[in-house]
Structures are given as C-alpha cells and as structure tokens.
Amino acid sequence: MKNIPKVKVGIVAVSRDCFPESLSVNRRKALVEAYKARYDEKNIYECPVCIVESEHHMLQALEDVQAAGCNALAVYLGNFGPEISETLLAKYFDGPVMFFAAAEERGDNLIQGRGDAYCGMLNASYNLKLRNIRAYIPEYPVGTAQECADMLEEFIPIARAVIGLSNLKIISFGPRPLNFLACNAPIKQLYNLGVEIEENSELDLFEAFHQHENDARIPEVVKDMEAELGGGNKKPEILAKLAQYELTLLDWVEAHKGSRSYVAIAGKCWPAFQTQFGFVPCYVNSRLTSQGIPVSCEVDIYGALSEFIGTCVSDDIVTLLDINNTVPADLYQEDIENAYPYTQKEIFMGFHCGNTSTKKLSFCEMKYQLIMARSLPEEVTQGTLEGDILPGEITFFRLQSTADNILRAYIAQGEVLPVATRSFGGIGIFAIPEMNRFYRHVLIEKNFPHHGAVAFGHVGKAIYEVFKYIGVAVDEIGFNQPKGMLYRTENPFV
Length: 494
Hints:
- With 494 residues, the chain is an alpha/beta fold.
- It is 37% helix and 21% strand.
- It contains 16 helices and 18 strands.
- It has helices at 21-38, 55-67, 83-92, 117-130, 145-166, 188-192, 202-211, 218-229, 239-256, 273-277, 282-290, 301-314, 329-335, 370-373, 435-444, 460-469; strands at residues 9-14, 44-46, 72-77, 97-102, 142-143, 168-174, 196-201, 262-266, 295-296, 318-325, 347-352, 365-368, 382-388, 392-401, 407-416, 426-431, 451-455, 477-479.
- Helix 1 crosses helix 5 and helix 8 (218-229) packs across helix 9.
C-alpha cells in the first residue's frame, strides 16, 4: 500500500552495570537472528555501538538509530536494565517505542547467567509513567528470543499507525449533509493526536474539477477503470467524468499535503453533489481507498481517520460502511441458521452506496445509485459500485471524538458470511458474536454514529494497542464482550 509509512525499528539493548554486559549483547544477537529467520530483516536495525548502561550510552545509541533512519524503537532488556537511561532513550526518541525483556534461558546457568529482566520491566514501566512517556508493552513482555521476535513483529503495524497519524493530514470537502450531525467532528482531538485538518468548501472542489475538464491523462485513467470493471462496467458513458474527478482529487492531495507525508479525504457526496457534478463519487472513492488513500463518505472526518488507522495496521484495503439493516427472518432461516453459529440478532448488513474496492467484492457492477435515483434523474446518480462484500474475517472499528471532546472508540471482530445479500449497494452480511449486546451497550449507549470502518482480517489486537498508545482511555474503548461479561449499563436480570 502507498500513503502509509515504512517502519524501521531500531533495536537497542540495555544493561544494568552490575550485571554482565555480555548477557544483553548475546540476547540481543539471539533476538535479531530469530527475527531474521522468520520475518523481513529490512524492518529492523540492530544498534551495534553500545549496550546502554548510562546516559552517555543512551545518547550514543540515540544518535546511531537516528542516523540509521529508524522511525520506531525497541528497547530490549537483556538484563535488569538501567531504569533512568532506558526511559530517557524513549523520551528523546521521536517515534513510537516498545519495551520488552529477555527470559532466562537455562536452569543450569542461573548464577552468572541470570539477568532478572522480569524484575527490570517493572522498574521500566514505573519510570515511563513518572516521565509521562507513552510506550507499547506487549501483553506478556518477557520471552525467549523467538517469542520476543514475535512481539517485535506485532509492534510493526502498531508503529506504522502511530507514525502515520503523526504525519497525517485529513482533507475535507463540506459541510456535512443535513441530518448528519451524528458524524460530528470536533477538531481539537485531531490536533491532540498530531493530525492536521484542511477543511474546504465543495465549491473549491467544483472549481478544481472544472479545471481538469480537458486533462490529457483522462483517457489513461478511463482505460484503467475499464480493465478493473470488466463486465461490471454498466455505465461506460460516465467513465470520463469519473476519471476527471479522480485526477482532481489526486492533484489536490499532492498540492495540499504540505508538510505532511500522508493524506486521507472526507468527501462530500450528496445532496447537491450529483446534480452539479453530474455523477456520484462512490467508484472513485473506492479506487483511491484501494491505493491507500482512504476517502470517507458524507464528510465523515473521524471515519476517514479510522480508515487510515485500519490501512496502516492491516497494510491492506479498508472500507467504511453503515451499520445498516437487520437480516430478515426468512433469509436467516434459509441460508444461515443451520450453517453458521450465530443467532439472528448477531448478524446485520453492512452497507454503503458503492465505496468498497472491487478487490473486496465477490462481484461488482458500476451503475446508478438506487436511493438517490428515487428522487433525482437517474443519469446524475451514476458512478456507484455495487456488489456483495467478500466473505472472510473482518474487524469493525471506529475512533471518534465526542461533542464534549472525549476520544472514544470501539473494536469488534467477526466475519462476513458467504451468503448472498439479495440487496443493492456495496453490502455484506456481517456476523459478530454477541452483536445484539454490543449494539445496545456500546454503539447506542456510547452515542457512536452509524459509520464504521472495516478492516479485512482480525486485527483488533493491534488496533486496540494503537488506541491505547495514542491516548484513548481504556474504559472508552468498547468491544463485543462475551457472554457472562456484563457491560456497565447492562441489566443483570435480563
């Protein structure tokens, strides 16, 4: 994917000066060897200049990893570790940091070969808190070389999202459509996250679109669209306009990203868009999102932010859907009840008009937008992408600032069922365990809007860690709690 960071983690081993330095040296080497044996060695850099035992060593290591182009840091306790120097290293490093520690290797080497990093992690965490330093600490942060290599690999997508957010600009074209107050976007929390926001009028976009009317690149983009759609190209007459719009957005991104490296777009798509532009932007939105430039519908700024986080974590295409409608009883009884372990209340249809990439649809047609065509001439509603969403594992999630400026989020893992929806738009039948309770006590109780970001895979573990790292309070991160685990607002007598 483009438009997301490439992560290079500098591995710095630390040592308490009353422990043999060789413990940290050898354990760092073993960690690096284990990582290279299983994962891409381009993701890491082994700091060779010193084992950090003092502030002087800390400065040496910091200079070395910065010179090596590292944008993330892994502080590895090969033994107990120097609590001040190791946390100062995290403080002065400009990027996401993780802390983890080496387990003892052998029962016959617990005198000169014992490192006590299990104890050192406690002091490290205490010192990080004293200095208000954010760091990622794995769920169980002490392990063998191979276990620590696995922890390091799990840190990569977390670091990618944190780095991306600190260099992100969200470009919006608004204002939001009438009756979409649910997609409110207090921008203070964006700045707190390190995200820039550029809010534009849709008239600005309209002017830029007309300036691309005779763009020489349009035929090439049309050809690419034709190849992508194949037999699903039901409105070939609209492709030139869609190509013109796609080039408008891409050129706007390049001209307006400024000091930022990454961009997401919160786009306008109705009510006046289709009558003035002469089409709907859904298919173009899907194409940019498939390139790693998320485009949310209905000027949903926090939807675009959520999509970008999902893109960074999954290194894959995401989408934004309405948590839309229930599944009728007859469809459930015919196609789901005896084939899948979900009740009717644990399934729903996720839908949007047509912004999901062709690569995430079982089949597709680019045609007119049915809902809008009910009240407008059909010819101005062309440009939506319809099809059933690919079956498989998904993570439904969202990060949102409330109207009173509190960061709140949810994460729920589930799947898209391989069951025909019998409906229209970009749509799928989603199954999430205990969805009925999650719907009531998280989505409704916490006042979330109807838009949710979808990552194609189970990446909830990483997204949860990203949310914690960027400062979302853990009691503000909702999830689909299993049976027997009551929500705070749940009636225990039901």
